[in-house]
TrEMBL record:
It comes from the Eukaryota. Residues 105-132, 206-233 form a coiled coil. Residues 55-123, 160-224 bind DNA. This is Transcription factor A, mitochondrial.
Amino acid sequence: MVSLLARSVGLLAKSLAGLSCTQATRCSSLPGALSAFQHTTTRWFSKQQLEEGLPKRPLSSFFRFVSEHRPTLAKQYPEAKLTEISKILALEWKGLSEPARKRYVEAANEELSKYKSEVRKYKENLNPLELQLLNEKKKERLVKRKHIRHRRELTILGKPKGARSAYNIYMSENFQETKGISMTEKMKHLQEDWKRLPQSQKQMYVQLAQDDRIRYENEMKAWEEQMLEIGREDLIRLKAKKRLIKDSKVMHEAKSKEQLHKKVVKKQTKPARGGKKADKRKNKE
């Protein structure tokens, strides 16, 4: 692959050498462009090599437990889905005693210390550029992991599914019947069919999309109110956050006024101090 890269760079250099003198003004920035091209390709190849040579992180104590017991559960419940088996294993792990967990934790810690030692040795053999690439790759993984966790959290919190477009509704209804073996073939045929679809038929899907948008906005409104109640304002859209905060302030002010009005009415209707006893004394006199 490296020889192929060298060949490509050589062909590029030959083509640049064959340029006429009238193009000299344009050629002033070409050496920089060539070096940039070599730099980016070097970075790409280095990234591939770094991924291959980097030591793999060992399993945690929980995943060691899962990998050990999953095959047994899969044999016991062949019709069960992977997610269902994972839930059962998670509950079993949660109820596992400390002595039973100990061997998984100790094995995980031992493998982790070996992994850290291997990574330290691996980094010692890298040059500055490769270290920089390794750090970039680590940042990319962290961002991706954070995104996955965020999506998983939203699913757990029950965030409504987004509104579908007219084309998405048409695609979901006609995907199975569309010609083609692979996914790409089916998608290509669907796009062509959608373009040829008469406007009168498209309007039906447009209306369905508008209805779905209303459904989404109503569900999001209710969901964002719940998020405000549990203190998750960070998950609320900016416009909705302003509206909800304003509504909560108005409700709080109205409630305060209502409480104040009740206190005033109660004070006015309250009988005078010792009223009935004072009247009895006057009657006796």
